[in-house]
Amino acid sequence: MHKLSPFLEKPWLPILAGFLLFGASAVGGVGFELHITTIWFDKLLHFLGGMVVTWFVLTAIPHLRTTLAILAVVLVVGLLWEMAEWWGSFGNTSAFPLYAKYMGIGTHLDTIFDLLFDLLGGAVLLARVKLKTLFTLAREKLQY
């Protein structure tokens, strides 16, 4: 069982975090072109995106308990994002007028690393939650 702290269990929080992350991507990536000038900016966003998707799954789908299933959801969301980047690379500026330039930056290697950082972000959050859960259970057993 994955246990979040009570404050973090609110299902609207990861949605808000996702919008804020998308805003940071738009401002930093499009406004300041950090995706071009700072190589780690895109990877940081994918890492945090993996965390946000994992957080959302933990709050919105609590019966999904296995690490593999949760990371599979993270991978699917990452793949959908990469498909949007790929679609944007064909000059469909009418579909993404503001983001077309940003979304069309990927290469195959970039896509692989983006997905890796999506999964890494999800795995780090899951490891943190699992360790906290294990330590909480161990502490409760020691008290009895």
From TrEMBL:
<protein>
    <recommendedName>
        <fullName>DUF2238 domain-containing protein</fullName>
    </recommendedName>
</protein>
<feature type="transmembrane region" description="Helical">
    <location>
        <begin position="12"/>
        <end position="32"/>
    </location>
</feature>
<feature type="transmembrane region" description="Helical">
    <location>
        <begin position="108"/>
        <end position="129"/>
    </location>
</feature>
<keyword id="KW-1133">Transmembrane helix</keyword>
<dbReference type="Pfam" id="PF09997">
    <property type="entry name" value="DUF2238"/>
</dbReference>
<feature type="transmembrane region" description="Helical">
    <location>
        <begin position="68"/>
        <end position="88"/>
    </location>
</feature>
<keyword id="KW-0812">Transmembrane</keyword>
<keyword id="KW-0472">Membrane</keyword>
<feature type="transmembrane region" description="Helical">
    <location>
        <begin position="44"/>
        <end position="61"/>
    </location>
</feature>
<dbReference type="InterPro" id="IPR014509">
    <property type="entry name" value="YjdF-like"/>
</dbReference>
